[in-house]
Amino acid sequence: MTSKQRRSLVEHMIDEYRASIRQCCDLVFLSRSVWYYKANPRDDRAIRKRMKEIAAVRIRYGVYRIHTLLRREGWKDNFKRVYRIYKEEGLHLRSKRPRRNRSGAHRLERPMLKRLNQVWSMDFVHDNLFNGRRIRFLTVVDNLSRTCLALLCGQSLKGTDVVAQMEQIVAQRAAYPERIQVDNGSEFISKALDKWAYENEVTLDFSRPGKPTDNPFIESFNGSFRDECLNVHWFLSIDDAQKKADIWKDDYNGFRPHSSIGNKTPNEFESFLDKENNSFDSVKVIIKDEQSRHSARSSTLTKSTENIDWSSTNNSSQSDYSNKEKIPDFQTLDLS
Q1: For a 10 Å CB count at each end of the chain, is N or C smaller?
Q2: CA-based angle 161:162:166, to the nearest 5?
Q3: Paired residues of 137 in beta bridges
Q4: What is the pTM of this model?
């Protein structure tokens, strides 16, 4: 039983039985100093408002990403306060994707990711226009940096369309991938893609039928793409869907933090890898440090925070709220 519950019980006993405070506190094992303590919480209306704004725009962002965005804007509030406000405001995600009980075994040994353009992944995502017409998106990501390389929308995409998109990505990045992880879709087993891969010495790594866990990077990306873009937009035409997907791709690559790469954006992570003075070993150290901080924050969630003196923390986050950087709302842009 928490101290708050004990206080409520003492109040009930005093009102109903007219017992003394001392007797009631002794009966429920509550210290009288706790009973007489008067909390003096700091004014957190500014950060509450900011968190609600972020949650309203980024509807699939949880407490960890919201805390990362607040830190990026200059707020000094620690994770425990952010999590407390997050719970009090009811900002929890409404639906959660189920966790898999088992991790699928890979058919082939997968190489350790050490450099950009080493391994790409691609897949198709299906959706509908406003009138029920089916459309598809070709999604391509770099497995190391999590960068979204392409979002191609169309009604009927064939193997030749995939090859044309690959050539466009290669021209932009000035490099061919060593390996591409794909499923056994008809577009990926086509002669056109096989010929392109053979001529450019690219290995096509096919996942086992019925085993999407063989290609986890693109599956994770597809889930984010559906949650944060497809499920929140109406598409009037293929051109409209392509335009909105491109806006979301720029937001995904340039703004959205990724916990798997040290809460950096893919663009920031690629820029870091491009520096000559930084090796991949130093990148792993940064990611490991960020993951350890993430684990430390998670461990605090199992502890009660009822008796924490919130007034003793740093008050520097009460700076002028009007000067805070606003998150670009790609969902409300004029896309007409």
Answers
A1: C
A2: 115
A3: 125, 153
A4: 0.64
Burial (CB count <10 Å: 0-12, 13-18, 19+), residue 255: middle
In the chain, where the domains are located: 3-36, 42-94, 119-256
Q: Classify residue 84 as exposed, middle or buried by CB count within 10 Å of its CB (0-12, 13-18, 19+).
A: middle
Q: What is the pLDDT of residues 133-186, one digit of tens each?
A: 999 999 999 999 999 999 999 988 899 999 999 999 999 999 999 999 998 888
3-class SS string, the chain: CCHHHHHHHHHHHHHHHCCCHHHHHHHCCCCHHHHHCCCCCCCCHHHHHHHHHHHHHCCCCCHHHHHHHHHHHCCCCCHHHHHHHHHHCCCCCCCCCCCCCCCCCCCCCCCCCCCCCCEEEEEEEEEECCCCCEEEEEEEEECCCCCEEEEEEECCCCHHHHHHHHHHHHHHHCCCCCEEEECCCCCCCCHHHHHHHHHCCCEEEECCCCCHHHCHHHHHHHHHHHHHCHHHCCCCCHHHHHHHHHHHHHHHHHCCCEHHHCCECHHHHHHHHHCCCCCHHHHHHHHHHHHHHHHHHHHHCCCCCCCCCHHHCCCCCCCCHHHCCCCCCHHHCCCC
Nearest residue to 221 via CA among 177, 266, 190: 266
CATH number of 119-256: 3.30.420.10
